C-alpha cells in the first residue's frame, strides 16, 4: 500500500456505512435510505480497513501530533463500529502502540491512548485475548495513576481506563481487589481535603478523585457480597464529608455513590440500619433544595435534580426508572447499579452507545439483553415510514403547534377570563 501518512481522519461518513462483516445482519433502521444507490459493501469494508491500518501505523510516528490524531481516529472508529475480526488480528500491535503512547507520550496523547484502550477492551469483550491486553496495560495504567508527577488529566484518564478494563476482563479476584485498592488510595485523599492545610488534596486534584471514585464504585458492583459489606463499612461514614465539597461534580459523584452503597447494603442485609441517617438525610435535603445565590442556576438545577433522586433512594428505597431506546429495542434502567454501569459505558462510547447496545455481545450480556436481534434489510425498511408520510406528519404537527401558540399569544384569548 501507499504511505499511511496521507490517510484522511476517520469521519462520520465512514461511521455511517453499515459494512461490518462481524454483524452485517443488522443495523440501525435510519441507516437504510429509500431508493438510494446500492453500496458495494466489500469494497467499502476494504477501504475502511485500509484507513484503519494506516492509523495503526501512524500511532508509531515521530510526531506527537500525528500519533494523537491517529489515536483519536481509531477511537472514533471503535466507538461507532463493531470491528471484532479486524481487531483480533491486530490486537497485539494495538496493545503495543497504546502502551508506548501511555509510557512516552505527553498528557493529551496519554489521554487518547487510555481512551482507545477502553474501547479496545469493549470491542474484544471478556475473553482470553482481553485478559492478555489487560496484563500488558494494567501495570502501566496503575503506574500513571499513582505517579504524582504525571498530569492530572492523564492520571484521570488512566484511572477511568483501569476501572473499565478491569470490569470487562478480569476473572481473577486478586487482580480485582488490587485494582480497587489502587483507586481507593487515590479518592480517599479527598476525605482529608477539609483538614488539609498543605494543599495536597487541592481543587486541582478533584477531577482525579472523582474519576477514581466512579471507577472504584463500578468495580464494587461485581464484587462478592462479603467484600461489598467490608467496603460499605469502610466508606459509608466517610463519603458524606464529600457532599460539602466546592466542586459540583464531586458532590454529585458522592451523592450517587451513597445511593448505590445503600442499595447494595439493603441487598446484602434486609435489616440494614445506618446510625447517622437523620444527619445524612438533612444534608441530602439541603442539597436537593439548594438556593444559594453564589451558585450558577444551571448548577443548582442539576444538583437539585440529582439529589432529589438520591434522597428518595436513601429514605424511601425508591429509584426513578428510565427507559433507553435503541433501534427496535427498549431497555429499562431500574436500579443504581445499572444506572452507574450504563453511564460509565455511555461516557466512553458517546454517540456509539446505541449501536453497541444493539450489536456488542459483551454489552448485551452486561445488561442482560440476550443475543443481538437479527433484522434483515427488508424488515428494517418496513419498520421505517416513507419520506412522504413523515412529511405529512411533520406538517400536521407544525400546524397544531402554530395554532396552540397563536392562541396563547393572542391577548384577546385572556380577556374573557376577567368578565
TrEMBL record:
One of its GO terms (biological process) is cell differentiation. It holds the Pfam family IFRD_C. Residues 19-315 form the Interferon-related developmental regulator N-terminal domain. GO terms for cellular component: nucleus. Keywords: Developmental protein, Differentiation. Residues 1-39 are annotated as: Disordered. Residues 360-413 form the Interferon-related developmental regulator C-terminal domain. The keyword Transcription does not apply. InterPro entries: ARM-like (IPR011989), ARM-type_fold (IPR016024), IFRD (IPR039777), Interferon-rel_develop_reg_C (IPR006921), Interferon-rel_develop_reg_N (IPR007701). Belongs to the IFRD family. Interacts with PSIP1/LEDGF. This is Interferon-related developmental regulator 1. The gene is Ifrd1.
Amino acid at each position: 500500500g501507499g504511505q499511511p501518512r496521507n490517510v484522511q481522519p476517520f469521519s462520520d461518513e465512514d461511521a455511517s456505512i453499515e459494512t461490518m462483516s462481524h454483524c452485517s445482519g443488522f443495523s440501525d433502521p435510519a441507516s437504510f435510505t429509500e431508493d438510494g444507490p446500492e453500496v458495494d459493501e466489500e469494497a467499502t469494508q476494504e477501504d475502511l480497513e485500509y484507513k484503519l491500518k494506516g492509523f495503526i501505523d501512524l500511532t508509531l510516528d515521530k510526531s506527537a501530533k500525528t500519533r494523537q490524531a491517529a489515536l483519536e481516529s481509531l477511537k472514533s472508529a471503535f466507538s461507532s463500529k463493531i470491528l471484532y475480526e479486524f481487531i483480533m488480528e491486530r490486537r497485539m500491535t494495538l496493545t503495543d502502540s497504546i502502551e508506548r503512547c501511555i509510557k512516552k507520550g505527553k498528557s493529551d496523547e496519554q489521554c487518547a491512548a487510555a481512551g482507545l484502550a477502553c474501547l479496545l477492551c469493549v470491542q474484544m469483550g471478556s475473553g482470553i485475548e482481553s485478559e492478555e491486553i489487560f496484563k500488558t496495560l494494567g501495570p502501566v495504567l496503575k503506574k500513571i495513576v499513582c505517579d504524582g508527577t504525571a498530569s492530572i488529566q492523564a492520571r484521570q484518564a488512566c484511572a477511568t481506563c483501569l476501572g473499565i478494563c478491569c470490569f470487562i476482563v478480569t476473572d481473577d479476584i486478586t487482580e480485582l481487589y488490587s485494582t480497587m485498592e489502587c483507586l481507593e488510595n487515590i479518592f480517599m485523599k479527598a476525605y482529608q481535603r477539609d483538614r488539609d492545610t498543605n494543599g495536597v488534596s487541592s481543587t486541582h486534584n478533584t477531577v482525579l478523585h472523582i474519576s477514581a471514585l466512579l471507577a472504584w464504585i463500578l468495580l464494587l458492583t461485581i464484587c462478592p457480597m462479603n467484600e461489598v459489606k467490608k467496603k460499605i463499612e469502610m466508606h459509608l461514614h466517610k463519603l458524606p464529608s464529600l457532599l460539602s465539597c466546592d466542586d459540583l461534580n464531586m458532590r454529585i459523584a458522592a451523592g450517587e455513590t451513597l445511593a448505590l452503597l445503600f442499595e447494595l447494603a439493603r441487598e446484602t442485609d434486609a435489616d440494614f440500619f445506618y446510625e447517622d441517617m437523620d444527619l445524612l438525610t438533612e444534608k441530602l435535603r439541603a442539597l436537593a433544595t439548594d438556593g444559594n445565590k453564589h451558585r450558577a442556576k444551571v448548577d443548582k438545577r442539576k444538583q437539585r435534580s440529582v439529589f432529589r433522586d438520591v434522597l428518595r433512594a436513601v429514605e424511601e428505597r425508591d429509584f426513578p426508572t428510565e427507559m433507553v431506546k435503541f433501534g427496535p429495542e427498549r431497555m429499562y434502567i431500574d436500579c443504581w447499579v445499572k444506572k452507574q454501569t450504563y453511564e460509565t459505558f455511555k461516557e466512553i462510547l458517546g454517540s456509539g452507545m446505541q449501536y453497541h447496545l444493539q450489536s456488542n455481545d459483551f454489552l448485551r450480556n452486561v445488561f442482560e439483553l440476550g443475543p443481538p436481534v437479527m433484522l434483515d434489510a427488508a424488515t428494517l425498511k418496513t419498520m421505517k415510514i416513507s419520506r412522504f408520510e413523515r412529511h405529512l406528519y411533520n406538517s400536521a404537527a407544525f400546524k397544531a403547534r402554530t395554532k396552540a401558540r397563536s392562541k396563547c399569544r393572542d391577548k384577546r384569548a385572556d380577556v374573557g377570563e376577567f368578565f
